[in-house]
Each structure stands twice: as structure tokens, then as C-alpha cells.
Amino acid sequence: MSFEPRCPICRQAVVWEGNPHRPFCSERCRMVDLGVWMTEGYQVPGEAVDPDADDDG
Length: 57
Ligand SMILES: [Zn+2]
What we know:
With 57 residues, the protein is an all-alpha fold. Helix content is 26%, strand content 0%. It is elongated.
């Protein structure tokens, strides 16, 4: 009986031992799971944002 973990994102076989991104195959898939890619698209350079929201005091 062998346990072959697979990445829940891309369904590739995952190297389990020594893999810091498990249960994902890579950092990329881990980020996808966290929804970071969606957040990245949210930050559009040059996008006119509310100046009041930019509070860098
Ligand atoms: Zn993957």
C-alpha cells in the first residue's frame, strides 16, 4: 500500500519529504490555494484609488 499525495491544485504528484509547500507541489500552487493570484490582480498599478484610503502616515 503506497501513499501518493497529489497536489490539490494541479493534480501532480507531490514530493512529500522535504517539500516545504506540501500538500502542494510548489509554492505557486500554494499561492493559488491562498487566493494570492486573485489579490495580485486586485492591485492594478495606475488604478485610481480613493486617496483617503491611502493612509501612509
Ligand atoms: Zn501543484
